[in-house]
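Possible regression after last week's pipeline update?

I re-ran a chain I had predicted before the update to compare outputs. Posting the input and the new output here so someone can diff against the archived version. Not blocking, just want to make sure nothing changed silently.
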Amino acid sequence: MSKILDVFGVDWKLLLVNAINFGLLLLALKYFVYGPVMDMLERRRQRIAEGVKNAELADKKLAETEAARAETLAKAGKEADAMLMHAREKGVVKEKELVAAGETAAESLLKDAENQAKEIKAQAIAESREEVAKLIVLGVEKLMKSKR
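New output (post-update):
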């Protein structure tokens, strides 16, 4: 075997030293480069996985928040509708009360006006009677004066 190595010009001592150097270099690179690079990649993979998990949690919380918001808006809408309906009902009741009060007031004013008209009519009749009586007295006086 040494003849074959000599024929090809290979020095087995140099080959052995180069193999040892390559092994040492391989161990040094594995220890100083490969290990830290793999640790860095693992940390990065974990950060990415954590980021994905956080993004999923954020999406889930966003969906929950949107659902709660929609529910709150629906509840507020129902409450507003109920308040509006209640206000309308109160408005109708108040309108009826005001109309009834107005009608009552109008009837009262009409009765008062009728009473006043009756009083004025009675007073006018009474005054007319007095005037007629005075005219009759004057007429009778004139008649008596003329007969004299």
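Follow-up from reviewer: compared with the archived run. The chain has a mean pLDDT of 92. Marking as no regression found.
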